[in-house]
Amino acid sequence: MRTTSNPAFRNLPTGGGYGSYAGFGQQQQYGTEPYGYQAPPTTGERPITIDDVVTKTAITLATTLVVGLVAAWMVLTKIVGAYALVIPGLLVGLVVSLVIIFKRTPSAPLVMTYAVAEGVFLGAITGVFEAFFPGIAWQAILGTFGVFGAMLVVYKTGAIRVTPRLTKWIIGATVGVVVLMLGNLLLGLFGVNSGLRDGGTLAIIFSLVVIGIAAFNFLLDFEAANEMIRSGVPAKWAWWAAFGLMTTLVWLYLEILRLLSYLQRD
């Protein structure tokens, strides 16, 4: 049985005709889901298709992008301060994401609320970076889509197979970098500079490693989507898939934005 570093996809139902920072989950059997979750019986709903996943993900991503552009414009034109958008966007996005994860059922309104909150959060942060490094926003956006597209090609062509061993490696690496980032944050509160986020050589190397790990998480995302389609989960679960994929995209975008800012410093 495979697993995933993305908490959203750990709760997806699979099999039985009902048809887990930063993707599409993996193969699970009834009774193995965390929190004692049991997939409900077949209801006769239309099974999910790849078009459902693509459409819902596109809608979610487009919403985040449009809201983000507006938020960034508001920050750049000084209509509103960055913190006035960053903090609410971050808090709302965090709360809604936790509700989605623990609710364990797909909800289009919640996913769209998450998309809007993330748009506000990312847009405000991007506006700040854009003010210091003109042009960095579009570079980060193109870089994020470039990595996403490249990993999709890698998955579809079978250049890298999602094996249990690879899955364990990706999850272990993801947990490792998260622990390092939290440790760096904690040290920073006490005025200790670990060098992981100061823009130096070590920081650049660390960002490249994090981007690589986030990219490999897409392989787990795509495998989970495939498993959902093969298992025939109801079409409404495409919203859950869109939410899970968005968490990886957000993580990747933020790290690429950070890396570009390092590289553009004098």
From TrEMBL:
Keywords, comma-separated and alphabetical: Membrane, Transmembrane, Transmembrane helix
Superkingdom classification of source: Bacteria
Keyword Chloroplast appears in the UniProt entry: no
One Pfam family per UniProt: BaxI_1
Keyword Transmembrane helix annotated: yes
PANTHER family linked: CONSERVED TRANSMEMBRANE PROTEIN-RELATED
Name of the molecule in the record: Bax inhibitor-1/YccA family protein
